[in-house]
Amino acid sequence: MGLLLAVAVGYTLGARAGPRGFDELVASIKAIRASEEFAAMLAAARSHAGYVLKEVAELLGNEDGAPILDDLVHRVNAMTHRLP
């Protein structure tokens, strides 16, 4: 959430600074995305999402009581591997 707020503020300030300011903003965003901290945050978010989805899958289950875990995890893995 803080990252989104920082991007919004940066965009606003970059728009006021003109094309040079916008280029600096783009460079800053690229630097953030390339940082180890950002990669760690994404890994933690993916791990947490996986845990939550496993819990939901176990709660839902199929009609015969079997968990839908494999299908749900497979879909989430497919979605997360499409992310940059």
Produce the secondary structure layout.
Layout: H1 2-17, H2 19-34, H3 36-60, H4 69-80
What can you see in these coordinates?
With 84 residues, the chain is mainly alpha-helical. The chain has two domains: 1-34; 36-84, no CATH class. It is 82% helix and 0% strand. It has helices at residues 2-17, 19-34, 36-60, 69-80. It is elongated, with a radius of gyration of 19 Å. The relative contact order is 0.08. The model has no long low-confidence stretch (mean pLDDT 75).
Overall SS class: mainly alpha
Order of helices and strands: HHHH
Helical content stands at over 70%
Distance between the termini: 18 Å
Q: Which regions contain 5 or more consecutive residues with pLDDT less than 50?
A: none
Which keywords apply here?
2 domains; mainly alpha; 84 residues
